[in-house]
Write a structure and sequence with these properties.
439 residues; alpha/beta; Nucleotidyltransferase, domain 5; 2 domains; six-stranded mixed beta sheet; four-stranded mixed beta sheet; 17 helices; 18 strands; 35% helix
Length: 439
Amino acid sequence: MAPAVVAVDFGATSIRVCRVELGDGPPVLQVVHRYSHEPEVDPAGTLRWRWSRLVAEMEKGLAAALERGPVASIGVDTWGVDYGLLDHRGDLVAPPVSYRDHRTDGFRELVDRIGAAELFTRTGVQLQPFNTLFQLAAHDPAELGRARHVLLLPELLVHHLTGARLGERTSAGTTQLVDISSGHWSPELLDAIGLEASWFPEILPAGHRAGTWHGVPVHLVGGHDTASAVVGMGATGGEGTAFASGGTWLLVGREQEHPRLDDLAREQNLTNEVGALGGYRVLKNLAGAWLVERARAAWGARDISALVEEAAELPPGATVDVADPRFLNPVDMHAEIVAAAGLGSDVDAAVVVRCVIDSLAHGAARVVGQLGGAERIELFGGLARWRPVRDRLAELSGTPVGTGPIEATAVGNALTQGVALGVYADLADARRHLGEGPP
């Protein structure tokens, strides 16, 4: 009998708990629980995740998955860079701060002190104001004073389930605190922000058995959701295929055996992320569906899917730079897009969505060009539903664009558990079980 696993997938706007049947055929995925969420501002003005509620929703989903029958494993992924501080008892010091909080607006001061070239050469990570390095440097000293451990969010959830304090290499790799040559925490960078190396856990690979929850083994997977999504991108892969992982963010890149640490990669602000099951993902972070998710507050109850279809009937028009930090967390996203694109203040929502569609396609095509082109682009995740993005990207890049699974992150999470359980021999074997197109 083919085993079933549970993929816990925390996105920055929605969490999903999926029961996935593995075996000789394509994985069969069932979303057993879904919960939409957003951070909230605490009394001190800090933007934090509603962590206790998110943990409760995870447990609700796990219970629902087990009600449907036995499972062989649980794996957890979340977005990158954010973390929790644990005290000497192993308790959370405070709810984790969201990477969209403005506390890191002065991150350039630390960049100048360490050196941009040194940071990139040592870590291979692109400069982003929300990297864990800058978040920890700006963290409330009173909270740091009570802390004894730092865990990235995927491993914070694993800690909740199993009690283990572990690191996982894909989530650790988002911090800009890991030496890309050694794969270990960088003593020099930890020293630069005044933190003890003993606070940071051992970094282990995906597939490691962390412990159990209610008797079910919990395995590390690609804790960074993009790492899991790329595992589950489809049957294709490798250096000839570029990927566009589209959800709240649009991550565009390709898989390579080795990282790119040259000056041009640094100038283009590319990043090198460790693959969940080997190799590296050389990519760039672009704003994704977040642009529309945040702008919809100005559009009333209009349906996003209907707006996308309406926008598809409009001709291509103005675009914005989806790599611009101004779109990270503006007060009014609709007004921000309109101003950046030079659109009229009374512009219809469908025109703004058309602008976003074209901007996403232009941004993705530009990154594919910076990577040296591709034989094929695989678009997966929630944006795979947006046919106009796929069509416009194919047109602008001159490259065939295929669509992978909508729930690619959960699929990749499950496939990695399958490798850990011995259902699949390796990444290539796991991917061979994926069919064409979204499940």
